[in-house]
Amino acid sequence: MAHGSPVELTDSEFVDEVLCSDVPVVVDYWAPWCGPCRMASPVIEKMAAEYQGQIKVCKLNIDEQREVATKYGIMSIPTFHIFKDGVMVDQVGGVTPTFEADLRQKIETHIR
């Protein structure tokens, strides 16, 4: 099921929530101490609400949930992966002036 707000994700929930999802999933790899992550948070929440029913948005705190972040080679945060049918199909790294438009464009590509 797709949610209207981001889902806080754990390593143990990753397979069920992301890889087995019937809708595309945006995974936000973040940490509470990361300033750019905090800047991205309102955009992530907005996308979760706007695309409710079409995508699922999940947040994975890399300080608390290291297994998945290590598996996907997360070296800097924020990083955003888009998964579709259990496969990572796209990504956005960092928060730029065009972050919201860039993320929206990538989401739109995968919900058509």
Task: Give me some keywords for this one.
single chain, 112 residues, alpha/beta, Glutaredoxin, five-stranded mixed sheet, globular
CATH top level assignment: Alpha Beta
In helices, the fraction of residues equals 25-40%
> What is the 3D form?
globular
Strand composition percent: 25-35%
CATH architecture title: 3-Layer(aba) Sandwich
Write down how many β-strands occur, each being a DSSP E stretch of 2 or more residues: 5
Taking the sheet with the most strands, its summary is:
5 strands, mixed
CATH homologous superfamily label: Glutaredoxin
Order of helices and strands: EHEHEHEEH
End-to-end distance, in Å?
A: 18 Å
Find the structural class using helix and strand composition.
Answer: alpha/beta
The strand line-up of the biggest sheet is 1-3-2-4-5
Estimate nothing, just give the exact number of structural domains: 1
* CATH topology term: Glutaredoxin
The number of helices is: 4
Q: Ranges with pLDDT <50 over ≥5 residues?
A: none
**Rounded mean pLDDT score:** 94
Oligomer status: single chain
Description:
It is a single chain. With 112 residues, the protein is an alpha/beta fold. It has a single domain, classed as Glutaredoxin (3-Layer(aba) Sandwich). The protein contains 4 helices and 5 strands; from the N terminus they run βαβαβαββα. The longest helix is centred in the middle third of the chain and has 16 residues. The protein is globular and about 35 Å long. The mean pLDDT is 94.
